[in-house]
Amino acid sequence: MKVQIMLRILFRLLRTRKANAAELARETDVSERSIYRYVEELSIAGVPIDIIRGRKGGICLPDTYRLPSNFFSKEEYAAAVNALSALYEQLPDEAVRGALEKLTRQEKADAHDLSLSGNILVDSGTWGDAYGFSDTLKFLESATEARACVDMTYVDREGTVSRRTVEPHLLIYKQNIWYLYAWCRKRENFRLFRVGRIRGARDTGETFERRHFERADLPLKFRFEDRELVRLRLAVQKSALPDVEEWLGMNSVRRGGDSFIAEAEVPGGEVLLSKLLGLGSGIRVLEPASVAAGLRERAAAVCGLYSAAKGGETSSVAAKDDRSYQTD
To answer: Is residue 318 part of a domain?
Structure first.
């Protein structure tokens, strides 16, 4: 009974995205106190439900949330749709119809990560797309096009959680990261938000008038102006050449003896060191010496995690585990 009620609440919110406790209590024939208890259990289970206080509030499910792709297996999914279709023919209940509509709209194809905008096709899926990054991006694209105000929960790099009502004006893709350029009503100014840090978002039902801004107003340097720029010079092996060309641009790379030389002015700091470490042994820093020293320190720290002593301990444990499964 408990699980059935929780599922009814979930499918109701998937259909309408918002409801109040009194409505859910009437539909499930339980008390409002029980509704809040079930909502709390759904939240603990990972469903991002928000409770918004006030006249326009209620129990809300972000518009970006979809059922996980592994919620049903392919066979279970087909069986659920068929069963609900048969049930609705015998019992035309609105709750059944809503659940059926939601299931049939649920995107199950592998192509759900593809976003088409004009003449640009973008595969927006991430390596760990468990939290519906692609759905969030599609929702923000639609909201930007429709001039729809968005209520969103945002988590910054320090882990601070804030709730914002924003007017989305532009989606920006730079250096493999998606950003939302939006007017933030809390800050009363334009702000740049990383899409991957938006925990949940929903349409408030309100539209906005676009605010004028110039291309020069866009923070496309992404705070690089307050970071020291360094003149980077690299020796590049052929194995790393494609990655370096895509990173710095082909015009920044020239042949130099047995390898290639790449030169560019780039922001320094941890971001640069992380990028260079990611290129591995395919590059060698020629200048500046401070960047080369920083790489040596970080490489030594990484090697320390995989030292011969620790590796030996790991190997001996693995060997012991292997022997425990051997039979006479």
So the answer is: no
pLDDT for 110 equals 41
239 and 206 within one domain: no
Residue 323 falls within a domain, yes or no? no
Residues 101 and 118 reside in one and the same domain: no
Q: Tell me how many domains the chain contains.
A: 3
Q: In this structure, are 125 and 202 located in the same domain?
A: yes
Start-to-end CA distance of the chain, whole Å, equals 52
Q: Would you say the C-alpha torsion 16, 20, 23, 25 has a positive or negative sign?
A: positive
Token output for 92: 């035309």
pLDDT score recorded for residue 135 = 78
Mean pLDDT per segment of 10 residues, for the chain of length 328 residues?
81 85 90 89 81 81 70 63 72 70 55 52 57 77 92 86 93 82 94 88 92 82 64 91 86 82 88 89 93 92 77 45 37
Domain assignment of residue 246, given as a range: 227-305
Q: Which residues pair with 19 in a beta bridge?
A: 59
Nearest 10 degrees: CA dihedral of 322, 324, 327, 328?
110
212 in the same domain as 120: yes
Q: Which stretches does DSSP call E strand in the chain?
A: 18-19, 50-52, 58-60, 114-117, 120-123, 148-155, 161-174, 177-184, 189-194, 198-207, 229-236, 253-256, 259-267, 283-287
Query: Please, which residues bridge with residue 162 across strands?
Result: 154
